[in-house]
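User: Predict the complex.
Assistant: Input components as received:
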Amino acid sequence: MVAVLAVTPVVLFTLLIGLRGVAAMRTTSDFLVASRRVSPLLNSAAVSGEYLSAASFLGVAGLVVKDGVGSMWYPVGFTAGYIAMLVLVAAPMRRSGALTVPDFAEARLASPALRRLAAVVVLVIGGLYLVPQFRTAGLVLSAVSQTPYWVGVVIAGTVVSATLALGGMRAATYVQAFQFFLKLLLFIVPAVWLLAQVNASDREAAMHPLDFTAFTRDTEMTVDVDVTLELVRETTVRAEGGGWTVLPPGELRMSSGGTLVFAEGSAVPDVRGGVTLGGPEWRRPLLDASADGHPLLGTWAVLVATMLGTMGLPHVLMRFHTSPDGRAARRTAAITVGLLSVFYLFPGIYGVLGSVLVPELYLSGATDTVVVALPAQVDDGWPGFLFTTLLTAGAFAAFLATSLGLLLVVSGAIAHDLIPGSLRTLRVTVLVSAAVVVLLALPCVRLDAGVLVTWGFTVAASTFCPLLVLGIWWARLTAAGAVSGVLAGLIASAGSIAMTLFGPPLTGVASILVSQPAPWSVPLAFAVMVLVSLSGRPPAWSRAAMLRLHLDEQHYSAGPRALGQPSHPTGAATRWSTVRRRIRHFVR
Amino acid sequence: MTTPRRGTAIWTHGRQKRVAVMSPQTRLAHSRRRERGRWRPPQLDRHDADRALMLYRRQLRGGAVALGLMLALLVFLPLSFALWPEMDEVRLSGIPVPWLLLAVLPYVVMVVLARWQLRRAERVESRGDR
């Protein structure tokens, strides 16, 4: 019921806007970047809407419950990425006139090989980022209703690909700008309501967390994914419909769909080697997810990955090309910092309240559903139902918006860079990519959205970040240097991720450096790129190719055609007055 | 550069050139497809090159300051949490101070920094006008 009420309006609205976009769309460029006529305010709302994925809407609060207060460093890194974008990338990238990162790679360095390599990297990042979106869609739908996990995944895939194939990016711009404000509303209003509803003792408990070692009330736990609990002492439990029984210490296996009630006062079972909910490590404002005793390194590793990775996220970079010129792209990045800052003030509230009100999610491992599970705990009447519905709608909007942009960029990489083709190829590619992601998401239910997304950031930080930063700010970069640097970064980061997934379990510093490779893989990629470039000779035009990116559009005399991109001064000029008026209060 | 208006005839080299009627967006996309594979080395005339070099240097210098401030926050805030764990016990109206520092302070700093960097970067470009 909740699922239907929440998902239907979001889906209908998305499709409606998608269909309205069709009339205005004619060519591949229209489809990909809405023909570059989007104002900074609208565009930054769309950037934020696209960026605030399921990982932000649900994942951060879930990680707070699971790994502790230090998880609030994730959104700090997510936002800091836009500062880096604003300083280093936004305006020059837009001025390059390229449509995608692979386009940029070829335009700046004239290397078709680099173009194809960049397209492959886009596929890797897109996959790592899309899978958790689809997975979380399935998880949330199965948590708020009795839908099986795979139904939610398939619904998400169908809606996203249909919208994109019908409307393209022009539609996506409006969909995402709208969805940003929708998400903001659907996130803030329930948070304020929750704070007002929570009784004083729970609020006190949230601010003074204690080790979660004994149940403070009869606690019902429903398992969506198979889980094994380690009972440390004799535990009193009640199965559905049965009476109380006492279980001896030892392993307790629960299969998906099972429900168990733990009696008040009985000991909390151990889950895994992680941080104890509410314990001293949990309370610290640093990230020590696997309780390895290196919280500072863990925190910095996440910050490096998220901050530098944002700069290299292909779907976000592409958004900057919908700005009319470099100045507007820069303003878009700056406004985005403000919009994200407002949103990210709130996930911590959900996380801290969730640690007190729904600690059973910590046991069942479904911490990503903490946001939607909270209202029912606070109020079991219609207000609780209403806010569960609103939050589910917001969460679904979150993965719809992000998946739209990501699918677009993935199919763009295939149809535009790997196999150049027409509009129809692009549409077919969208459908095929969505189907593949759905299939990949089905077995991934156990992996946290926040962790998977951070891997996407890590790959982006180790490949596109050095390529863009050096491409824009260093004239001596050569094509050979760029190719070897991107390859080194890709192999290092993707290899580490593969080792975390399939390799033997590690402990200590090694565990952090393998599961969070950004602190070494990013410098490695930079170093390889610089060293290989220095050992070769850049072509004679390389200085002009770099300087061109820093020249503001109003002052062109040779014209930006130099890189194969026609300029469109009319668009910039007519839009400018409105743009200026709208964001004057922010800038002045 | 002149952009032909919709349906306007343009005279070049003394004879009339036919221009297809299409929206600027469509023309843009079409020309892109034609130009694919015809990559030419980028060229800047002297005046543009001088201006671009001036902008590049100033943006690099200012940008380094903004980025340095950002990095300082991300390095020293976790470091101070690690070095002074006793701060965890300090509370402001019931909320542990480090939680507040983590959940609010970085965003305030980043918004101010974004605003400052944007104004600086735009000033560099508009001052270069004259």
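Residues 557-580, 582-588 of chain A have pLDDT under 50 and may be disordered.
Let me know if you want any component modeled separately.
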